[in-house]
Records
---
Amino acid sequence: MAADEITPSILSTLTNALPDSDPEETGEWVESFDALVREQGTGRAQYVMRSLLQRAGAQSVGVPMVTTTDYVNTIPADQEPAYPGNEEYERAYRRAMRWNAAIMVHRAQRADIGVGGHISTYAGAATLYEVGFNHFFRGKDHAGGGDQVFFQGHASPGMYARAFMEGRLSEEDLDGFRQEKSKEGHALSSYPHPRLMPHFWEFPTVSMGIGPMNAIYQAQSNRYLHNRGLKDTSDQQVWAFLGDGEMDEPESRGLLQLAANEGLDNLNFVINCNLQRLDGPVRGNGKIMQELEAFFRGAGWNVIKVVWGREWDELLAKDTDGSLVNIMNDTVDGDYQTFKAENGGFIREHFFGRSAQTKDLVADLTDDQIWNLKRGGHDYRKVYAAYKAATEFKGKPTVILAKTVKGYGLGAHFEARNATHQMKKLTMEDLKAFRDLLRIPISDEVLEKDLYRPPYYHPGMDAPEIQYMMGRRAVLGGSVPERRPEHVEVKLPDAKSYEVAKKGSGKQKAATTMAFVRMLKDLLRDKDFGKRLVPVVPDESRTFGMDAFFPTAKIYNPKGQNYLSVDRELVLAYKESPLGQLIHPGINEAGAVAAFTAAGTAYATHGQPLVPIYVFYSMFGFQRTGDSFWAAADQMTRGFIIGATAGRTTLTGEGLQHADGHSPLLASTNPAVVTYDPAYGYEIAHIFRDGLERMYGPDSADRNLMYYLTVYNEPIHQPAEPENLDVQGVLKGIYKVSAAENPDGKPRAQVLASGVSVPWALDAQRILAEDWGVAADVWSVTSWNELRRDGLAAEEHEFLNPGAEARVPFVTSQLAGAEGPVVAVSDYMKAVPDQIRQFIPNEYAVLGADGFGFSDTRQAARRFFKNDTHSVVVKTLQMLAREGKVNAQAPAQAIEKYRLLDVNAGTTGGAGGDA
């Protein structure tokens, strides 16, 4: 390929657009600069260049921002620190780990199992990890508290291979890879899954893009804990290992500004730039490392590129006219990938052969020597220099862009091939070549016994290299990864903290959102427990009435508030502080869930329980960030998720994209989420207290739960907690909120309602009695979802225990003896209350808000969807008419009487109104 056929890549091109009026003088300046570098080193040259740039700015000389640098290592060879480790020992067990990682996946591919796995990612990234394990990653027993490491999901076999070398896992464990039930007790999860391996993995990362996002907020959470005086995290680093293809995910890049804005120099991204996605090159016609350098630098990060191994240093030193660097700059990633899939002769012709100067540079090298010119991510000295520089850098987060080869060392069938990500099997030829490359002492005879059962290799715990390895981990504070769920004792709030929610609102009206916020305000004041609450609100605090927290709890900002607030004279003035308790991620639901996850797992990450309370616009919860909530469940997050302004018809003018009619269904797909749709403040108080008890109380069987409460912005008269409240019914999902008066001799019915629809049901109860002589009981269904789970569990028990006494679902037992048809209503789509149909002993019908939302009054919207008070009345009459309990003409008469087909005749609910 000719040089003029190369697709232009991202280059600095600082001089291309300007004429050189005096080339001779330009040459003298360049020669002078080269002499400065040669005689005084790159450090001095850097200072002089910065001084000149500063002076140019002062003289109004336009100097472009340099977002990318040449395609060479950021750290010059003369500035590399000495490597502190025993290179011989580290190479020895690194070879064994690479072998065992590949063999573990290969063995899992035998015909009777075939569970898959990934070989190539760890093969290419082994050096990146091992330099960290040997010299940087601190374990839980380190005096500084240990680091948090987000491992790249597809590299998990390498972490298992190291754990095997450390004696943490056995050969039987390795053979349980991806067989979590059939090999229970000796099973390894496919990827980093804390829920599946709760004492091994800390962070789930294989859902692409969530790892980077969660790592950023983990670093912020560390600082949050430190600034609020809950734990000294000043010596803890967060490491996130990522793929270059993964960086195309919007979540991977979309939150970089937070890390830069808050100066999170405790955060290090290591991006494994093997130039390949799952199917092919990341940027075949471009250069992903250059693109990422520009992006991160522009976002305010410190960028370190590790492009070339030490074998290139001498060639670059001889490149006095920049010919080699120019070719490095111009060569696109698709070609770099092809070069590593070919041979040294091919590289000599198609890379170095692009200019006479570069061809002469390698004239004395053999093809094998050219082939062995390594990429920087495979050179532990270069990687060590980058890691050391990153951990010592202050004021900014650091990203390390390390160039590697996917499938490195696995042979010609794997290295840099487009299909390498999906390749899981080694041929006998591959096995032998891989063994020879790694110098594993296993004979041909042993390998040939069974292609799919080649042996693992361990030199023995007494081997000097293993003793060295264990010694390094001891110095660094123990094994990584490790999860420790033990935490300091938590004193939960006493009963008085919930009193405000149980008193009701008296003569005033208050939405359930406000009832919740008032209760939360009292909980924050609890002298023992209040400090552990972490409200998280994405720029809607005033919508939810949470601006009352600003002057007291304050908004967390590590830089404080260095401006004169425009509302400083107001009682509810906006107030930022390093001691602030409220996390305010801005218009950023994804970041809010990441903050929620970091806080909700602090009990395990730091041994300091925090209880995050994420309050959001209901529609923007599970629909927008469901994947993140799934990762939060995998990480065993504990906390409260509050879907405020809930329901499809309560937001009046906001319209379609704000009208939530389905989030309980989305939440039902997450096994860790306990969903409630409370109607009254006293219900919220009992549910919240129960959640805390289940998360941190002494008698909980399953603590790793997220409580999801939907609350509304429609003001109603909040009743005080009734005497003899059925608290068990509130917590398990249904209780009778109002029995019919004087039911004797009247047609009977049951109305089930949840959330904002309970007052509609109570009004329907009154109308049925006054206008039609029907006695209806009203039930508050605090959780359709939990009633369904309980019912399904009862069915499962009966299925697996034939002959045993069947367990009755809770909703069935609650409605035992209840007479008449059952009408269920909510402000969600019909599928929400329809979840419990099979467990209702009576005839059952549901009303709801199916279809898209729209802008209108609450009354009109409810009349349109036919889930309002009069719709409950008509549906009840229809069902009773079928049974012959009321006049057959009653339903039609009711439709006409209440003008049910006229959206302008609706009367259910108030107009507009604040929360």
---
Amino acid sequence: MKKNIYPTEVLDVTVESLNEKGVGFARYIHPPEKGPNGKHLLLHIDNVVPGDKVRVTVVNAKGRHRAGVAYDELLEPSPLRNLDMPTNREMAAGAPLQFMKYEAQLAHKENLIKGYMADAGVSEDLVKPIIGMENPYRYRNKMELTFGADGALGMHQQGNYRRVIDLEDSILAPEEMIAIKKIVGQWQKDYQFPGVDKDTKEGLLANLLMRQSFATGEIMVALYALEQPDQYQAAIDDLRDRLLSAQPRIESFQWIVKKGGMERSYDNDAYVMYGRDYINDRLQGFKFRIWPDTFFQVNPVQAEKMVDTALSMAQVSPDMRVLDLFCGIGTFSLPLARASKEVAGIEIVENSILSARRNAEDNNLDNTFFMASDARLGMKELPEVWGQPDLLLLDPPRNGAGGKVMRAIGRLGTDRIVYVSCGPKSLATDLVWLKDFGYEVVEVQPIDQFPHTAHLETIVLLKKVK
């Protein structure tokens, strides 16, 4: 049966709330045609703040129950809106909350985690006030931009992976990175090097990666391309000279050939065009070597607070043996090793384990053991190859550890568990698995690790009570 198609309508609505992705929610009720009740239309609107009154255009407005739209006009700004941000700017993905005052962002995220904890049966009274930033701007130590087929160099449009919006500035990126982006963008135009087309997979330049240590000042610039650098050497040398003239703290300039085309790969060919293949960084007083593909906390100011909070919850003593699950390059392992008898780290990415071992060696730590393994299998093997831990800390990816890993954690049976999460929804799901093993949540500490984005870091302490 063919559905009726209704006219396009222009509607004025008030934004009621934001979802976990930072997208606004509004409701419109059509005038009733038959009976006392009109049809409900649920709208998801980008780049808005709760309380904003906006005008939107909706195709087939009466013939649908929900629609995702951009607003045409901001009729009346919410008291929560940051009026210093232009309201008509084209939005790239990455910072959907940037139009909201920072205090309102913190309240929104704190309410989110309370809601997720309630879903997991955890009292909101255990959720402490969120830890925010004094200066929540230009905090990222890493930016990865995309070359568009049309010559743009920036970030993907929100909800449209094929479109790249040229980055003129960003409230997330240090000024040095914005300057580097402009140099690279002009260099690309001067040599007319094509960006990679997302559909045909043809072109030369794919991505620009920039890293900057706030502790040492060292900067890395890496160009990801689909071809070897040989035939472009003169142009690459020219870019090197332009970059070093403007940013003398660059210690690593690399041309990296993406072996898997546009797919992410850890097996790329890297060519060092200046300096070395890594930069030095510091966190919690420890030295870390950072390569292009290294996973390292992108907000060093909040990362210090995050590690401090996790260690405070853990209450590590000099006679304790600690397991750091999903250990990465040792962000938590090294501070834990300084405070404990021994630390074991388990991580599935082989390169991260190699980095963790090297970082421990660089910091003169001889009480660490790192194991490249799947988390669940690693926990199964650990008692035989290393011993039984007294404390477990886990810092899984945003999609969480999953039921199998959480059950394995429960069977391991440490007295205390510290869960460091960057995904509150998956955190709530994971916590439920530990109830059957006699664990209860003692403390929940949200940290705004990613201001102006929808992401939230949360640290949870659990104790075994039965």
---
Amino acid sequence: MTVRPKVVVVPTARPTFAVEVAKVRAVAARALLVELGADVTGPADLVMTPEDVAAAAEFVTADADLVINICASFSDASPALELYAGLDRPPLLWSFREPGPVGDRLWLNSLCGANLFGHALLVHAGLSARLVYGDPSEPAVRDAIGAALRGDLPPAPDVPSVVRERGDTDEVAEALRGLRGRTIGLVGEAPTGFTPSRYDAALVDKLFGLAIEEIGVEAMFDRVDEVPAAERDVERADAVAAQPSLATLDPAQVALSASVTTALKSWRDQADLSAMAIRCWPEFPASLGVCPCSSLSRLADAGTPTACERDVYGAVTMMLLEALGAGTTYLVDTVDLDAERNVVRLWHCGAAATSLAADPSAATQYVHCNRKIGVAGNFPLKTGPVMMARLTENPGAAGLRLLIAAGESVPEPNRFQGNTAAVRLDADAEDFVHGLVSGGFPHHTVLAWTDVRPALRTAADQLGIPVVEW
């Protein structure tokens, strides 16, 4: 008699994504598991609320042969830690391809959700999650799931160990000295379940000499309310002159966006800030009534690195790259994998500097992809050679580690509403994506169009930061 493997399946999602599509995919994934002989338990409906997570926890038991989290759409990492932190084996994260048409929003953002789960589980629970990427109808996915049911999880890719070119030690040391004494401005707390947005202020000071200046979201809203109408109108006129598509949007939201930009610039100047990391949601759209993406773009175009989702280590990475000569950069999610073309698509909601547009004269400003209110950029990012970098926690050790990758941003229409780059990696793209998840790297990396990798490696050497380079 064949013993059917006991499999716990938890489908996680978030209401701001296309939940009906997510539900269809989750049902198909569960059906495939049953077809392949699994004894499936777990919640039948999408897990989206704290109450849903608590109910799902009843199914996650020690006698399961396999635990699968179906990342039916993006979700923050709260369920990962609440459900799986006590497991003695890595969970399998199953993420789906993006189904929407070219130019539409990310319907699911499933891969990014798996990436965020992977970071949380390794950094905060010591578990190296494994990834299956693709839809239930794909033969390769069927094979991978069948192997997992037999106890053979997808392997964690080997981390490359090649020693690569270094930069001039004196120039790098001077660049690092130039960071010391500078300040990053933080607005608000880390979003719930966004583990990469946590940070160690003492470590940031020790390594880089950077100070942190904090202000609450409500205090920032007070500053927005206090912006004089004359100053708001000057910023609005400047913004419309630089970004004419703003004239097609709701005038009230364009005016409010101008007030946000003015308030952020004023705080930057008063506090002598060199970068900002902003809790950009949920309060900005839900309480203030505007998305700050276009404001962050305006600051970036003016030379101030801006990181959304209050990502401090992301902001530090941007500052480090800038100090080494990378110029303007952008904080991105890895949201899509085209293994046949060796391409990953890098995206975020619309806070890219217009100077980073494939065509800066056509750097359209529009409504936010999920919130459907202004103001956010909607244009493809420029093409050419690129590099990616990210400072992040070093699991099981003190300090930070540094992720590096490189490739070429290739021409294509803006795949997802917001700002997208299609990057053909120098390394194997499938290994890279699996390495992000199993290696516990953040869902955010920093994308740059000037290659400063030799100097960046030297900076890591001088700071005692280990490098993981794909």
